[in-house]
Design goal:
heterodimer; A: alpha+beta; six-stranded mixed sheet; five-stranded antiparallel sheet; 8 helices; 19 strands; B: mainly alpha
């Protein structure tokens, strides 16, 4: 059993009666990478701010490293934070930005120089010490924000959508850098994102939220292969899971909705498929083509085909799939535990 | 090919000059030409019925430098500037920081602080006349409650200038506060949060982050306060008329007296030129030296 580093117990935060987060409980092992995932307004940033101490919870307890910090000031929680906007001080140079916290904590100058050099080395910013943030590119600013978090040498680092202001190519490379940094430094990272690819590829543990509540919390593969409800099914994965009305498939009347991933679909010869669909669009990605399908009793149906495919929109296709690839959900959208091929 | 580029360039130049011309014409007519005319006038002697005006070179300036009243007025103005500029800026900054924090009735506080700015200087001076009047004034009434003797704040040389200075500070601080408030609102909230996480105290945050980011505003306000310390004399007409015994007389008031009470236009012109010179030098220093140390976003 891994030792718990951060423990969130039944935390709630409301603004003027409006919901912020409700009943959030989390247990984060030391040295793990946890992603808080969800659409905007789901409460993931609020959860992070509650952890950081920038907001205080209305209910519940927060324990970091065995210490109850529910009402402690941010600086007493031994954590660093990377902001979405980076929150760099615009009038200070890169070096001054990075060592700001060390100066505040009265770290001696020699030690400051040492730590600064190391942090700039790790983030590849050597040579930029004297630049002001305004003279840096978006990616460099992001690295300054990272360097500021590294130099603090805190065991817990909170990141609030740190990649959302970068272009797609840079995002992929910084993603790897952050992951490597977390492993090298052995720190615990709580990472907020709305991008499921980011969460799935970086995190050991993904917490998917909606409307201030946790929908599912588990390893990326749990969320992908065993979505707890239809929301998780439709949020996780690219393309997300398709949902089919159970009335369309005879033999599964106990479930209301049936989920199906793109990679489980196969093309079938005319007359031999289990569903008759109409092609709506083709999305060419290089190694494969996603063909979007419409069916009156299903939504989000996509079939993945190798290589380049051009299928005119409006053409009819028949698809086939195996029963063991199906996911079953009840009327509330919750996953059914033992529906595997079971007919009622 | 080259020809249409040339035509286009000329068209752009004409367009640019057309855009510049309204400001250029107005400034020339009402600022540059009068300044030059003043310089010209200051080089001639005063015209009387018996003696026509004649070129005297720097004689008007030499006269000024031997005039004890001139030096008295210059000293007064230096004290006036030296007190009103830093004090009004400090109060404005304090009020802005307070009115920008999360306090109840924030709108009311802001409005209250801004009210003196809305009042015309003459009205403000009349208000303060009521405060300062010996016997009847609010200050004396309050003093009497504690058994203090009546003081004629405006009527004695030791206190007259300071009484005038206080009115100016009261008038200006609210105005400068608005600039600081606007500047404070451009500082992103997350800078404070980042500083909080690093464990910076409120004081450290203000000193290391807020004040440097307010520097452009401070510079702008300093130039304005400096100009006002020379040009804001309306209240002298109501409060002291420069007295008693020139104790509260400021340069611009003296220039006005010189020109329209003593009808010595050349002397007034010479003083005006000196002011222009000093203000020009100070503004130059501010915009070159201080600008380099200021972060603009």
């Amino acid at each position: 059993m891994p030792d718990t580093f951060v423990e969130v117990q039944n935390v709630a935060k409301r603004w003027n009666g409006q919901l912020g987060v409700e009943g959030v409980s989390l247990s984060i092992p030391r040295g793990s990478f946890v992603a808080l995932l969800g659409p905007s307004g789901c409460g993931k940033s609020t959860t992070l701010r509650l952890l950081s101490g920038l907001e205080l919870p209305d209910e519940g307890r927060i324990i970091i490293d065995g210490k109850d910090v529910t009402t402690a000031a941010p600086s007493e929680r031994n954590l660093s934070m990377v902001f979405q906007s980076y929150a760099l001080f615009p009038h200070l140079s890169v070096a001054e930005n990075v060592v700001f916290g060390l100066k505040v904590r009265r770290v001696p100058a020699a030690e400051r120089r040492e730590k600064l050099k190391r942090a700039l080395e790790i983030t590849g910013l050597l040579g930029y010490e004297a630049r002001k943030p305004g003279a840096l590119s978006g990616g460099q600013r992001q690295r300054v924000a990272l360097a500021r978090a590294i130099v603090a040498n805190q065991p817990l680092c909170l990141m609030d959508e740190p990649l959302s202001n970068l272009d797609a190519k840079l995002r992929a490379s910084v993603r790897k850098d952050i992951k490597k940094l977390q492993l090298d430094l052995g720190i615990t990272v709580v990472y907020v994102t709305h991008d499921q690819t980011e969460a799935m590829s970086m995190a050991d543990h993904v917490v998917l939220m909606r409307d201030g509540r946790i929908q599912q919390s588990g390893a990326p593969e749990d969320l992908y292969y065993r979505p707890a409800n239809t929301f998780v099914a439709e949020f996780v994965g690219a393309p997300p899971m398709a949902l089919i009305d159970s009335a369309m498939l005879p033999g599964f009347e106990r479930a209301t909705m049936i989920g199906l991933r793109a990679e489980s679909l196969r093309l079938a010869e005319a007359g031999k498929g289990r569903l008759k669909c109409r092609v709506s669009e083709c999305e060419f990605l290089g190694s494969e083509t996603f063909v979007g399908l419409t069916h009156p009793g299903a939504r989000g149906l996509t079939i993945s085909m190798p290589g380049l495919r051009h299928i005119p929109a409006g053409e009819n296709l028949e698809i086939d799939f195996a029963d063991e690839d199906l996911h079953f959900f009840d009327a509330e959208g919750n996953r059914l535990r033992h529906p595997n091929g079971v007919t009622v | 090919m080259a020809q249409h580029v040339n035509i286009e360039r000329r068209r752009q130049a004409i367009y640019g000059w057309l855009l510049l011309s309204p400001a250029a014409i107005l400034l020339t007519a009402f600022a540059f030409y009068p300044s030059l005319a003043t310089l010209w006038t200051s080089l001639f002697s005063r015209e009387t019925r018996r003696k026509p005006s004649e070129f005297v070179g720097t004689e008007n300036y030499a006269d000024l430098f031997t005039d004890p009243t001139f030096w008295k007025v210059v000293t007064n103005n230096l004290i006036y500037a030296g007190a009103t500029i830093p004090v009004s800026i400090a109060i404005a900054l304090g009020m802005a920081l307070w009115a920008n924090s999360k306090i109840p009735a924030r709108g009311f506080v802001r409005t209250a602080y801004f009210t003196p700015t809305v009042l015309p200087m003459i009205a403000a001076a009349n208000l303060w006349l009521f405060f300062y009047t010996p016997g009847l004034g609010v200050l004396d009434q309050i003093g009497a409650l504690f058994g203090l003797p009546s003081v004629n704040w405006l009527g004695q040389p030791e206190t007259a200038l300071w009484a005038v200075i206080i009115v100016t500070i009261w008038k200006e601080a609210g105005f400068f506060m608005i600039f600081y408030l606007a500047a404070l609102q451009t500082i992103p909230e997350d800078l404070k949060e980042a500083a909080d996480i690093e464990g910076a105290s409120r004081l450290t945050y203000t000193r290391r982050i807020v004040l440097p980011l307010l520097m452009p505003t401070t510079l702008f306000i300093m130039v304005n306060a400096l100009i006002n310390s020379v040009k804001l004399i309306d209240h002298l007409f109501i409060l002291t008329k420069g007295g008693p015994n020139d104790a509260s007389k400021l340069i611009l008031y003296y220039i006005w007296e010189m020109a329209f009470a003593f009808f010595d236009a050349p002397q007034a012109a010479a003083m005006t030129i000196l002011i222009l010179l000093v203000l020009g030098v100070v503004a130059g220093v501010k915009f070159t030296i201080l600008d380099k140390r200021t972060h603009y976003q």
